[in-house]
Design goal:
By secondary structure, the chain is of the alpha/beta class. Helix content is 28%, strand content 23%. It has three domains: 66 residues, Alpha-Beta Plaits; 185 residues, 3-Layer(aba) Sandwich (Rossmann fold); 126 residues, Rossmann fold (3-Layer(aba) Sandwich). It has a seven-stranded parallel beta sheet with strand order 11-15-10-5-8-9-16, with helices on both faces. Helix 5 links the parallel strand 8 and strand 9. It is globular, with a radius of gyration of 24 Å. The termini are far apart.
């Protein structure tokens, strides 16, 4: 095996194992990895410095490198003990649309408070828009040390180029170590623009955030490869460390009595980026239903993927004050719209009660329901993964179980009348 001038072994790709995911290509700090015509990674020995990062991130262990060398390479990246740096800032973008702040922004404030405390850093909220000062007090009451307010008439409606310029300029002024945003349609669009302006990395749709004790780096965990692998990603060389997080992943924080201060910022929009607004269409769901807002979800899985099942599901949902949702196979069959899908490629939910009917419980689905207070699973397969996370489970045919459950609920309701 080839070595660098320092005597460190250069890794090699095992073609039979490589799946062409290109994660190693994006991670290589010296751009030594290329993709061959047959879709396999290849390491240029003339460029490679043997850092071993490709071996660390490869999800299928297709990089041949001695394990001891790999560990040494990983340690070289973060060989200095972490010492909190005075003046560091952890920041959260407060998403405001149609006069209302997104709940995920407040959820992120709660998580960001934990991260800031670990770093001994200040927690800052970024509030942008027109006539949005009322949201600053809310940010302060949930634990922010400071709230940065940038108001301008051109920010009355969301335009990615304007908001991207404004938030990037605010980040340049404050210099946050970390910038967190909600993984909504608004947040996903804006995060990419801001990351490009700031020339930093962005980890999307995270389900976990933490601070590495040895380095102080933000550890961003997200599902990958269709939810079959949980990847933890860090951004070592660029700032801020940026992440978007789905709604309902973290709990809503309680009130915090910390003192906070309001800092106003002036901003002049770039003339070249000011569009002429001809018409505006309000953001409304085509179905008028947001499954994340319901306290009870009756979720149909592949095992209940039949038109005959939906009258039962709807009746059960009506008795419990909930709504019917589904897993990905049901959407793919055409029986329900994407807006009702629960899962890594759908919506993350946190109802008080989740009832999975015929849901197998693949990891990408389980990740999306981890915030549920109670989980009841109905499945005729006793080995279904959903039972691993369920508070209660019923092994049986849903066509027999649901009518009995509905009958008992009706009797209970009648007794209370």
């Amino acid at each position: 095996m080839a070595k660098t001038p320092a005597g460190i072994e250069i890794p090699e790709i095992i073609p039979d194992k490589c799946i062409g995911c290109q994660i190693c290509i994006s991670k290589c700090p010296v751009e030594a990895i290329k993709l061959t015509p047959d879709g396999k990674a290849w390491i240029d020995p003339e460029i490679c410095e043997g850092c071993g990062q490709c071996a660390e991130v490869c999800p299928v262990e297709a990089v041949d490198l001695d394990r001891t060398e790999r560990i040494k390479a990983g340690k070289r990246l973060r060989d200095k003990p972490f010492t909190p740096v005075s003046g560091q800032v952890v920041s959260v973008y407060i998403e405001i649309r149609n006069g209302k702040a997104a709940d995920v922004s407040w959820e992120l404030v709660g998580k960001a408070r934990e991260l800031a405390d670990k770093l001994e850093a200040r927690l800052a909220a970024f509030v942008l828009g027109s006539d949005v000062e009322e949201f600053c007090a809310r940010a302060g009451s949930l634990g922010c040390d400071e709230v940065h307010l940038l108001e301008h008439d051109t920010l009355k409606r969301y335009v990615s180029s304007l908001y991207g310029h404004a938030l990037s300029e605010l980040a340049h002024k404050v210099q946050p170590e970390i910038l967190l945003m909600g993984a909504t349609s608004h947040g996903r669009d804006l995060a990419g623009v801001v990351a490009t302006h700031l020339k930093t990395g962005l980890t999307a749709d995270c389900t976990g955030l933490d601070i590495e004790e040895d380095s102080g780096l933000l550890l961003m965990t997200r599902p990958t490869f269709g939810g079959n692998i949980m990847a933890t990603i860090f951004c070592e060389n660029h700032r801020p460390q940026m992440s978007t997080v789905r709604p309902k992943v973290f709990p809503m924080p309680g009130l915090n009595e910390k003192k906070w201060k309001l800092i106003r910022h002036a901003w002049r929009p770039p003339e070249s980026s000011v569009p002429e607004l001809i018409a505006f269409i309000e953001d409304k769901s085509l179905l008028g239903i947001d499954i994340t807002e319901y306290p009870v979800l009756i979720v149909a899985g592949k095992g209940a993927c039949s038109k005959d099942s939906f009258p039962l599901l709807e009746e059960l949902a009506g008795l419990l004050g909930g709504v019917v949702a589904c897993s990905r196979p049901v959407v793919e069959s055409g029986l329900m719209p994407y807006e009702r899908q629960v899962g890594q490629t759908g919506k993350t939910v946190a109802p008080k009660l989740y009832i999975g009917v015929g849901v197998s419980g693949a990891i990408q689905h389980r990740v999306a329901i981890q915030g549920a207070e109670r989980i009841l699973a109905v499945n005729n397969d006793p080995d279904a993964p959903i039972f691993q996370v369920a508070d209660a489970g019923i092994v049986g045919d849903y066509a027999q179980v649901l009518p009995e459950l509905i009958s008992r609920l009706k009797a209970k309701v009648k007794n209370h009348e």
